[in-house]
What does this fold into?
Amino acid sequence: MNRTKSLLLCFLGIAIFINTAIAQQKTTAQKVDELLKKMTLAEKIGQLNQYNGDWEATGPITADVGSKLDAIRRGEVGSVLNIIGVAHTRKFQEAAMQSRLRIPLIFGQDVIHGYSVTFPIPLAEAASWDMEAIEKSARIAATEAAAGGVQWTFAPMVDIARDPRWGRVMEGAGEDPYLGSLIATARVHGFQGKGLGNLDAVMACAKHFAAYGAAIGGRDYNSVDMSLRNLWEFYLPPFKAAADAGAATFMNSFNDLNGVPASANRYLMRDILKGKWGFKGFVVSDWGSIGEMINHGYVKDNYEAAEAAINAGSDMDMESRSYIKNLAKLVADKKVSVATIDEAVRRILTKKFELGLFEDAYRFNNAEREKRMINTAAHIEAARDVARKSIVLLKNDKQLLPLSKDLGTIALIGPLAKSKKEMKGFWSLDVGDEKEIVSLYEGMELAAPKTKLLYAPGCDITDTSKAGFDEAYKAAMQADVVVMAMGERPDMTGEAKSRSNIHLPGVQEDLIKAVMASGKPVVVLLMSGRPMVFNYTADHVPAILYTWWLGNQAGNAMADVLYGNYNPGAKLPITFPRTEGQIPIYYNHLNTGRPAHGDNDVNYTSAYIDLPNSPKFAFGHGLSYSTFKYSNLKLSKKTMLKTEAITVSFDLQNSGKYAGEEVAQLYLRDMVSQPVRPVKELKGFQKVMLQPGETKTITFTIDKNKLSFYNEALEWITQPGEFKLMIGSASDDIRLEDSFLLN
Ligand code: NOJ
It folds into this structure.
C-alpha cells in the first residue's frame, strides 16, 4: 500500500468513527424513552412523588411515611424539598443511588430572595423597576443555592396582587401585569442563567398557577372567582412571560378558580399551559394541595384526588401522598392511563437529564464549591445595591433628606432600629450568620461616624404599652434630627399571614405623634412586606422612606439613602390604600358609568361618602432627591394603521441638584372600546440616569401589541379608535398627554 492510499484509509476510518460517535449521541428524549422502558409502574409513580426532607417544613405534615431514606431506596421518591447544604443533600442522593435504577433526586427549596446572602423581598425588588438588578439578584441566589446542593427553586411567584391584606403580596411583583411580566422574565432568566446543566443554574418555578393572588377578601388559600377575561388580561400574562422565558417548572395553586381547584384544573394545565403555550417542563402541586381537594369538596378521597390531578396535568405531588398511594390502583382500575403517567414521568426525567444529574448525581455536592461560592464580597455588594434601589421615597417635604453627615446628634427611635435578622423578611433561609446582617443602627454608625446616635426603641412592634414613649421623647429633644424605624414583624407578611387590619401595628403611630411633639425634624422609615396604612405619619411627618424588608445589607442601604450616598429612584409597584375599606384598589380600573371627578365628588357617583377614591400613594409613585421635568412631547404620527407603529418622544431633564434616576412611565387608554378598557394601563417605562441639568430624549414605540386586548370571546384583538397617551412620573402624576387614532 502506498502512502497516499494508507492516508486515505486512515481518514476514512476517522470519518466512520466520528459518524458512529454522532449516531451514538442520543438526544435527551431518546435517553428518557430508554429509561422509561426499563421502569416498572411503581418506579414511574415514585418519580411523581415529592416528600419534604427531615429538616424544616413549610406546610402541615400529612402523615408519617416511615423512613424517607428507605422510601428513596425503594424508588418511591422523585424529589425532596426543604433540605439544603451539600452534606445533607448528599445523604439523600446516596439513598437514591441505592435504588434499582439509580435515578437521581432533585432537591427543591423556596429560594425566594437569596440563599445565604439575603436580598430584598420580591415586592421590594419590584419597586426598583430595574430588570438588570432583579435578574442579578436571582442569578446570585441561584449560584449560591446550586453551590449548596439545590437544583430547583420554587420561585418566582408571579401572582398579580391587588389586595394588601393578602400576606403573600410580599412575594410577588405587585399589581401590574406589564411590570409583572418583565419581572417574571428577569427572574426566570436569573435563576436559570445560561441554562440547566450549568453548575450555577437552578430550575425556576412559576407559581401559583393561577390567580392565587385574587383570593377573596385577601385571605390566604381562599377561593377565587373571576371572569376568564379578567384572568387572561391581568393574571395570566406574567405566567405566559415566565413560560416564554423558559421556566422549567410551574406550581399550581391552593385556590379553586371558579369552583375548580387549581390542582385539578384541566383548563389551566392542559388547555392553556401545556396546550396553547406549549410548555415542556413539569407542573408540581403546591404543598398537599392535591389532597386538599377533599376539603374543597371537589373529590371524596385521595383516590379521586389523584385521579383528578394527574388527568388534569399535575405532574408531581408535593407532600399529599395521593399519587404514591393511589396511582397504581387508578391505573389498574383504568381511571388513569399508563400514557398519562408516562407523560408526567417523561417531563420530570427530561429535567433530570438536562440538569446533568444522570451524568453525575453528586455534581451539586461539592463542599469546596459550597464554601467558595456562598457569601462572596461580590454577592454582598450586589445585595446592597439592589437594596438601595428598592427603597421608595414616599415624601420629602422641604428637602429634609438627605441628611448631612455632620449632624451632631441623631435620635434613632423605634422597635426596628437595631433589628438584624428581621431585616431578612419572610421566606428567607436560615443560612449564614446573624453577624452578616447589617441593622439600621450599624449602617448609620458606619456612614456618619461623627454623628452621635441616641437610641430608644419607644415601643415594641405590636405593643399596647406606651411606657417607652418618654425615653423616646427625651432622646428626640436632645437630637438635631430624629430617624424612626417602624413597621411590622417580618412574619406578619408571607404565607398564611393575611391581616384584616393593615395599619402600622400597635402604638407605633402614637409613638410617632409623641416624637413629632418634640418639634424636631423627623424621618420615618417603614419596614413591611405589604402596603400598610399610616395616615397620621403620611399627613404629618415630613420625610418618609418605605424600606420593606431589604435583606442582609438593609442597614447599609438605608444609610446610603438617608445620607445621600445613593439618590432613591424606586417607584411603588402596588397601590397604597387610605384604609382597608378601599381594598381592592388598583390604578388600572374601569371607569364605570358614574365616575367621580375628584375626591369630593359624591353626587350620585361611584364613590364612598366617607373616603376619597384616590389612594394614599398611587402605583408608580416614588420621589427622588432631584426633580425631573418632562417636556416636548412628539408623536411621529397622529394616526396609525394596525401594521404601523408610532414613535413617541419627549425630553426628560434633571431639574434638581442631585444626579439621579427617574422611571418615566407610559400609560395608554383606549377611549371607546367593547368591552370597556381601564382608565390607564402601563405600557412602557424607562429608568433613566441623569446628571443635574442634563436632558435626555426618551422614546417609546407604540405598536399594535400595546393596543390589543382580549374580547369577550378571549380573542386577542385591536379595535380602531382613539387612544389617549399619558407620560409621567407616577400613575397619578401624568406630565404629558396626547392622543392618536388607530385606523
Ligand atoms: C406552600 C407555598 O404555597 C409554596 O409557594 C411553597 O413553594 C411550598 N409551600 C413549598 O414550601
About this structure: Residues 3-24 form the longest helix (22 residues). Residues 451 and 563 are 12 Å apart (CA to CA).
